[in-house]
Amino acid sequence: MVLRHVLALLSFGLVVTVSDAKPNLDGIYALAKRRVPTHAHAFSFSLADGDTDSFVVSDVPAGIHVQCTTVSACARGFYAYLSTHGGTDIWWTGSRLAHLPAHLPKVGTPVQAHAIVPYRYHFNTVTFDYTTAFWDFDQWELELDWLALRGVNLPLAWVGYEYILIETFREVGLTDTDIATFLSGPAFQAWNRFGNIQGSWGGDLPTTWVNDQFALQERIIGRMTELGMTPVLPSFTGFVPRALATLYPNASIVNGSQWEGFPESLTNVTFLNPFDPLFTTLQTTFISKQREAYGNVSHIYTLDQYNENNPFSGDLAYLANVTAGTFASLRAADPDAVWLMQGWLFFSSAAFWTNERIEAYLGGVPGNDSLIILDLYSEAQPQWNRTSSYFGKQWVWCELHNYGGNMGFEGNLDELTHGPLTALHSPGSSMKGLGLTPEGQEGNEIVYDLLLDQAWSPTPLNIAAYVDGWVARRYNVKSLPRAATDAWQLLSATVYSNTDPGSQAAIKSIYELAPALTGLTNRTGHHPTRVPYDTNTTILPALKALLKAGEQQPLLKLNPEFAFDVVDVARQLLSNRFIDYYDVLLAAYNTTSSPSAVSAAGHTLLDLLADLDALLATNDHFLLSNWIRDARSWAHGKDKDKNSEAYAAYLEYNARNQITLWGPDGEINDYASKAWAGLVGTYYRPRWAAFVEYLADTKQTGAAYNAATVSAQMIALGKAWSNGTWGTGQGETWGTKGDTWDVVRKVVEKWA
Ligand SMILES: *[C@@H]1O[C@H](CO)[C@@H](O)[C@H](O)[C@H]1NC(C)=O
Ligand SMILES: *[C@@H]1O[C@H](CO)[C@@H](O)[C@H](O)[C@H]1NC(C)=O
Ligand SMILES: *[C@@H]1O[C@H](CO)[C@@H](O)[C@H](O)[C@H]1NC(C)=O
Ligand SMILES: *[C@@H]1O[C@H](CO)[C@@H](O)[C@H](O)[C@H]1NC(C)=O
Ligand SMILES: *[C@@H]1O[C@H](CO)[C@@H](O)[C@H](O)[C@H]1NC(C)=O
Ligand SMILES: *[C@@H]1O[C@H](CO)[C@@H](O)[C@H](O)[C@H]1NC(C)=O
Ligand SMILES: *[C@@H]1O[C@H](CO)[C@@H](O)[C@H](O)[C@H]1NC(C)=O
Ligand SMILES: *[C@@H]1O[C@H](CO)[C@@H](O)[C@H](O)[C@H]1NC(C)=O
Ligand SMILES: *[C@@H]1O[C@H](CO)[C@@H](O)[C@H](O)[C@H]1NC(C)=O
Ligand SMILES: *[C@@H]1O[C@H](CO)[C@@H](O)[C@H](O)[C@H]1NC(C)=O
Ligand SMILES: *[C@@H]1O[C@H](CO)[C@@H](O)[C@H](O)[C@H]1NC(C)=O
How crowded is the C-beta side of 470, counted as CA atoms within 13 Å? Predict the structure, then answer.
């Protein structure tokens, strides 16, 4: 074992397995029992020496054997068998691994593979809010198995951060009142952790929440470790309650910049300069408490200080001082500490972060192996190529792909296979990993699967062959009709071959935006609304092909992933059609003075949204009610006191506000919009109804269109909706409603 680690060190110049516990395969055996209970006895695993993460799968008399060099590689080897030979897979929509054939197919010639990079990374700091904010351990368990099987060995682990942070703050004399005005609500913790916002709207963060999340994190860390993953743990970042400045008048404290138009009381977060000795005190306290809680499981720490928050000074000596002080504090707390940072700042604040400043900032950290930078948006806005491979520091090629968990189809499969290899083989490359950094996990699953699979292939994956295999195991039926694969080959060659530089992210549907006469269509950037393909020759025929496949092989209709995809493609059809009818409404508004002609044009939009809501309501993965129920569940059953209804309402407000107004007054309105039944029916549709009514009214009265009036009305609707509680609005039901196949057939007849 010692030799193995030394070899790993020599080969990559770093230690990948940082856990001090002697690696054992108990977690992999437990994974097999959990996911393939009736076949678990047939699988055996063993560790062998080797200098990279690699595995060999072969037949043995008792069944199938996976030999691996690391626990993570064993999980990946197990997955290689289950997916390739077993024809099954595990998805965000659930694990189907138990559907292995009764007689396990033989491997034949042993199958081997190795990871092309030492790190396979997952999560964006904000995924912990946009997707997992209200998850319980069952939801985490599926996620962690999905990650481990795909070979991820470096997941971010933010859950429950506040518990240890609060203890740390108390130790330097801050009161609970000081701390309460600093922490943000359950759906907004990521941006408090980033130092973008402070405090909470709608009520202080409850202690019950802090304690429950900490308990959840203990289980998450335990499971990550058992599955051979090294959790990237939180650390003290420097962001502190305002009161620290009063308590330590001589400490070097500055204010961060204002974020996204939030009022000063909620942003300009106070920052303790890392070269102040108090910083090291807080860091060592935090990390030693964390080590006590979770054990000596990782030496890699996530730490971001300037995410969408510019430094107090651009002076090169100051910047180097900040990183030198920060890193010294980490090493004081943990002599093996490695600092991991999201590289988003270098793109999002590119005007501030000149190459000179980046070099000074990174240069404050000694050595090249002490830092890991996530090149956060490599598929579209890589920064490694303008920074001489981050001046030699380790970095990870990351796919971001979506903002706020927006759900529209988008992808560039070719870039995901070629881009990482080009970067890895570029002269002087210090790239050490491949990873996923999506803001949310909502659909478009194929673009994420492909990247994690590319991490195990030294040559670019063949996309056509990849899609065939992906569809076959996703639908997993005998005699899969060719039409099903055709649908995905078509999408892959068009919708998922998007090279439009203006729309390199999940496409946002304009019905999810606050209605207005201008500015909705053809947006480019992070929330593009420009649809870079022709719906009639892509989405529509793909949907028809899937329906045809369902007719030819009725077993498909019992497959949850097939049902998900059919609803998802039909959703995209309606989203795109909405743009056409919106244009019709605008044209009507421009050319007629008749209020009824405007209302009639608007009626089509409302009709479409009603049909969209009904479509989404047929599938459990497109429901607002699940988001709300998950949020409320942290109050019910967990906190039995009489305030638990108030607590549930508080959680629900957080959940509703994040996906709509995002801020007390709509500061980043509609950023995290979703195509969910319930949200479409009780929020987006009423907004459009109000808009159509307003347009018709102006025709009636002859008044000029007033954009400010419309916008204020939309914010007012958002506030009323955010403050609602489940069951008090209209059409709010838990669970699904209606038959997918009936509804989709009608959608195609009516809207094709
Ligand atoms: C909505 O709730 C928030 C937080 O509880 C409160 O501050 C606000 O006044 C309410 N707004 C409306 C329109 O009811
Ligand atoms: C702050 O610095 C001043 C001047 O050096 C000193 O007199 C004072 O005692 C210090 N206060 C604290 C709380 O350390
Ligand atoms: C930071 O902001 C607070 C609140 O507005 C203010 O009182 C304080 O003086 C600011 N601190 C600095 C160093 O600018
Ligand atoms: C907040 O930051 C902005 C710059 O982003 C600055 O103009 C303002 O003075 C800051 N306010 C405080 C209280 O620090
Ligand atoms: C944690 O692990 C490191 C080696 O990775 C070791 O040097 C250190 O002594 C361990 N610390 C504790 C508290 O066990
Ligand atoms: C760098 O940090 C030291 C304390 O470690 C401080 O005395 C010095 O002023 C800092 N330099 C700059 C340029 O901020
Ligand atoms: C880095 O690569 C991106 C994507 O290919 C390209 O747009 C950009 O111009 C490159 N930057 C430099 C400095 O080469
Ligand atoms: C870090 O990498 C850079 C660029 O390859 C190199 O010039 C430098 O010598 C390296 N530093 C160390 C300490 O290895
Ligand atoms: C949207 O952009 C495309 C390409 O730039 C252009 O052809 C089209 O006219 C634009 N549509 C609108 C409504 O602006
Ligand atoms: C797509 O099909 C619809 C319905 O037949 C038609 O109205 C529209 O003009 C077509 N769009 C394009 C770009 O061909
Ligand atoms: C409506 O009129 C405005 C200004 O008169 C113009 O900019 C816009 O392009 C027109 N829209 C349509 C859909 O005709």
Answer: 22
List phi, psi (to 5°) of 654: -60, -50
- Residue 582 pLDDT more than 60? yes
Q: Quick check: CB of 522 below 6 Å from ligand 9?
A: yes
Task: Give the pair of three-digit tokens for residue 19.
Answer: 């856990």
- 460, exposed or middle or buried, with CB in 10 Å at 0-12, 13-18, 19+? middle
Nearest ligand 7 atom to the CA of 384 is 1
Cα 516 to Cα 509: distance, rounded to the nearest angstrom = 14
Closest C-alpha residue for ligand 2 atom 10: 250
Residue 95, strand partner residues: 90
Q: What separation in Å is there between the alpha carbon of 260 and the centre of ligand 3?
A: 18
Question: Ligand 11 pocket: which residues have CB below 6 Å?
Answer: 583, 586-587, 590
- 717-732, pLDDT tens digit by residue? 999 999 999 877 777 8
Q: Which of 518, 522, 590 has most ligand 9 atoms within 8 Å of CB, for mutation? A: 522
Distance 263 CA to ligand 4 centre (A): 10
pLDDT at 291 exceeding the cut of 60? yes
Confidence category of residue 640, pLDDT binned at 50, 70, 90: low
- For residue 580, the CA-to-ligand 10 centroid distance in Å is 9
> In whole angstroms, what is the distance from residue 54 CA to residue 111 CA?
11
Q: What span, in angstroms and rounded, lies between the C-alpha atoms of 69 and 439?
A: 32
Burial category of 688 from C-beta neighbours within 10 Å (exposed 0-12, middle 13-18, buried 19 and up): buried
- Angle ∠(348,349,353) on CA atoms, nearest 5: 130
User: Are the C-beta atoms of residues 611 and 713 closer than 8 Å to each other?
Assistant: no
Nearest CA to ligand 6 atom 14: 318
Phi, psi (rounded to 5 degrees) for 73: -65, -30
CB of 636 within 8 A of CB of 612? no
Nearest CA to 227 among 152, 159, 165, 289?
152
- 89: its two tokens: 């897979």
The Cα–Cα gap between 482 and 484 comes to 5
pLDDT of residue 728: 77
pTM: 0.95
- 450 has pLDDT over 60: yes
Residue labelled with tokens 């509680």: 725
What does the pLDDT look like over 130-139, one tens digit per residue? 999 999 999 9
Q: With a 6 A CB cut-off, is 521 part of the ligand 9 pocket?
A: yes
Give residue-wise pLDDT tens across range 456-506. Answer: 999 999 999 999 999 999 999 999 999 999 999 999 999 999 999 999 999
Can you say whether the dihedral through the CA atoms of 668, 379, 394, 319 is positive or negative?
Answer: negative
Helices (H), 409-528: 413-424, 445-454, 463-475, 482-493
Relative to beta strand 270-272, strand 253-255 is antiparallel
For the stretch 415-437, pLDDT in tens is: 999 999 999 999 999 999 999 99
Residue with structure tokens 């005190």?
281
Rounded Cα gap, residues 249 and 270, in angstroms: 13
Q: Tokens at residue 41, please? A: 């006895």
**Ligand 5 touching residue 176 (CB < 6 A):** no
CB 187 within 8 A of CB 259: no
The closest residue, in CA terms, to atom 12 on ligand 6 is 318
Mean pLDDT of the chain: 95
Q: Give the number of whichever ligand sits closest to the CA of residue 13.
A: 8
Tokens of 8: 């790993």
Q: Residue 583: count other Cβ atoms within 10 Å of its Cβ.
A: 12
Q: What is the DSSP string of 74-89?
A: HHHHHHHIIIIIS---
* Most ligand 3 atoms within 8 A of CB, residue of 178, 248, 255, 270 to mutate: 255
Q: Would the CB of 536 count as within 6 Å of ligand 10?
A: yes
Q: Which two tokens stand for residue 182?
A: 């600093």
The domains of the chain, with CATH numbers, are 11-114 (3.30.379.10), 119-461 (3.20.20.80), 558-751 (1.20.120.670)
